[in-house]
Amino acid sequence: MIGRIRGRLVEKEEGAVVVEAGGVGYEVFVPSGLYTSLEEGSEVLLYTVYYVKEDEVGLYGFSTKQEKKLFRSLLKISGVGPKTALAVLSTLGLEGFLRAIKEEDIKAISRVPGIGKKGASRIILEMRNVLPSEKSPGESELLQALRSLGFTRAEVEEVVREVSAQNLPLEEAVKEALRRLGR
């Protein structure tokens, strides 16, 4: 299994790049946003998924571990193969897809080539169980800490959501929330 690859980008082909590492050129399929940001001759690090199924073999690369994890989660859904999973990341991006799942936005997911309304509904249903719940333990702890400092829930609810999304340690999250609240 190839978990990641670091090397020089030697060639860009439509939807894929060739990364030379250790004298071998690896063809790696990447999301369109990553594809456009990479330049030939540059040093790259891609987190990869080596996909093998009956008559299909491919290496898929991502700029972050979160994208790689999402790609793997999408592959577990019936009817979603690597090309469709890559199209999700190319069309919506990581944040856009997570937002669409959270908001149950069938229309947004249906914009992905190869996914209709029924497929979008299935993806939302299955991904809701995979993704973390809306209120993470960090959000609860941050809310509790700010309430103990005398803030009301209504005063801090939006700031808590925004700061919790940054996944900071509790002490830094409290400092950031206080900064945003003007204290």
Polypeptide structure, described:
The protein has 183 residues and is of the alpha+beta class. The chain has three domains: 4-62, Beta Barrel (OB fold (Dihydrolipoamide Acetyltransferase, E2P)); 66-130, Orthogonal Bundle (DNA polymerase, domain 1), CATH 1.10.150.20; 137-180. 50% of the residues lie in helices and 22% in strands. It contains eight helices and five strands. The chain has helices at 32-37, 65-75, 82-102, 106-110, 117-130, 137-148, 153-164, 170-180; strands spanning 4-13, 16-21, 24-29, 43-53, 56-62. The chain has a five-stranded antiparallel sheet, covered by helices on one side. Strand 4 (43-53) and strand 5 form a beta hairpin. Helix 7 (153-164) packs across helix 8 (170-180). The protein is globular. Residues 133-137 have low confidence and may be disordered.
Structural class computed from helices and strand pairing: alpha+beta
CATH topology of the largest domain: DNA polymerase, domain 1
Radius of gyration: 20 Å
Q: Segments where pLDDT lies below 50 for 5+ residues? A: 133-137
Q: What is the element string, with H for helices and E for strands? A: EEEHEEHHHHHHH
Distance between the termini: 50 Å
Q: What is the CATH-assigned architecture of the largest domain?
A: Orthogonal Bundle
Number of helices: 8
Largest sheet: 5 strands, antiparallel
Overall structural domain count: 3
Q: How big a fraction of the residues is strand?
A: 15-25%
Placed side by side, the strands forming the largest sheet appear as 3-2-1-4-5
Number of strands: 5
